[in-house]
Amino acid sequence: MWLEKNEKSTLEQLNIIKIGGNIIDQPEKLEKFLKNFSELQGHKILVHGGGKIATDLAKTMQIPQQMVEGRRVTNANTLQLITMVYGGLISKNIVAQLAAQGNAAIGLSGADANTVVSKKRPVKTVDYGFVGDVKKVNAEAIQKIVNAGFIPVFCAITHDEKGQLLNTNADTMASEIATALSVNFKTSLYYCFEKKGVLENVEDENSVIAAINPENYEQLKAEGKIFQGMIPKLDNAFSAIYKGVQAVHILQAEDLLATIKNKENHGTKITA
What we know:
Elements: E1 13-19, H1 21-24, H2 27-39, E2 43-48, H3 53-60, E3 66-68, E4 71-73, H4 76-100, E5 105-108, E6 116-120, E7 132-137, H5 139-147, E8 151-155, E9 157-159, E10 165-167, H6 170-181, E11 186-193, E12 211-212, H7 214-222, H8 230-242, E13 247-252, H9 256-261, E14 268-270
Helix pairs in contact: 3-4, 6-8
């Protein structure tokens, strides 16, 4: 179910926005973000992570959790838990708040309408369990939802087309959705989190790097200025740029509206 490339010179704008767990974990920040998100005109898609809610609930339910390099090892019990939290509690809370702002939002996982298919990650040095890497995106189905006037709100749960749900990295999911939709939309991808952008010095909140290209990205990594969780986020950002997404920004959630609506320069822009 792939879309054929639209040859029209003028494509409609589509903004894909991903929010991280630090926003979800703070009700006031989430409420403010969703109000700003509601003010954005035109087509838009929201992708959200899981935050600490699943971890806290796992403790309450006495389900042991294992993290490897910041990534959650997902056994059968943990998969059930995060599906309930990501696809249920968090998703419906976001959709309800968007509805209160007059938005027609729909909470989705990758299994809904067969929108995002993943392949279970093979065991190498670490067995991550029921974790999936995105294999394909059903752009046609998502486009129908968007063109019908709805706002898709994706949680980071996908499936393998064989009935198995899989825990999936939300940054990757946002990148792959933006890439797939870039065939028939002018797509921009925004990674929103608690920092002002990618920082040259993690101890200095104001040391925002205005733009990163492949050359200075490699230099920043070599100098140890970019590390840990920021590396996969930037890898996903560059992947989107290379595959047709027109613009990718990493920025503070509070600056999203000013960046898109008022064309202000905030955060870090990713360039090819």
